[in-house]
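I'll show a typical protein example:
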Amino acid sequence: MGSMAELMLPVIDFSNPRLKPGTAEWTAVRDEVKQALETYGCFEARFEKVPVDLQESMLGSVQELFDLPLQTKLRNVSRKPYHGYVGQYPMVPLYESMGIDDADVYEKVDGLTTILWPEGHPNFSKNIQSFSEKLSELDKMIRRMILESLGVEKYLDEHMNSTNYLLRVMRYAGPQTTDTKLGLNSHTDKNIVTILCQNEVDGLEVQTKDGEWFSAQPSPNSFVMIGDSLYAWVNGRLHSPHHRVMMSGNKARYSVGLFSIPKGGYMIKAPDELVDEERPLLFKPFDHVEFLGFYYTEAGQRAESALKTYCGV
């Protein structure tokens, strides 16, 4: 691959009303999902339940959120690493983000809204919850397809019941220069599945298995990738890609990611069906919250693969 612009990710359509488990349409899309996640660890998803007007309303709410004074944004605190307000870091001065736990539940969202806007802001709560609820439908479809494609669908209920949703909203300030500046360091996600929507400002780059970087261009479609927790659960059968954000120009980049997150106390362990002589166990069972705590230590940040360092066999 000679340049980042040459690689086009698969675009997978989830909008067919006949897309139901057991149908030929479902099987065809399921095969596309498996191939994309084996090859790239990511793909674009076309999903009409998240129309452009809902995305635009959501991104408008995100911009309104980040326009709040810093002292107001700092009210969003969490005991979990990087689940509250994150920003003002010298290493990534262009980046700030905010996490909203259980964002598909209106009461949870409105609780945070009241902290940020004591006078109330029901439109903000509605946009966040509606967007998250729709994206969670896509997340559940994708995860079901993954388990079916690997022949371990008997674990579906346990798998779904072991996760919550975190919505993370992100802003990358324009660096006010044509030179490219770091927006966010190269990393793999640590969760199960990430579904990302972004405004028209590009900057997201993804690394292939061969170590080449390509640009994930802004699109009305959702960008889907898997994280380390799912990579470990499927015993390395799918790819968890490194990605980063590189910024140039004057315009801010806004993005919104729905993360399916393993619940604290749930041990992530590859099913016996996915472990054999050809594919020996890669990782010891681990708790996602404890792994996340390690990742943000000096040793975790220094490791080439925090997952392998933490629980590799």
Summary: The first helix runs from residue 24 to 39. The mean pLDDT is 94. Residues 39 and 266 are 28 Å apart (CA to CA).
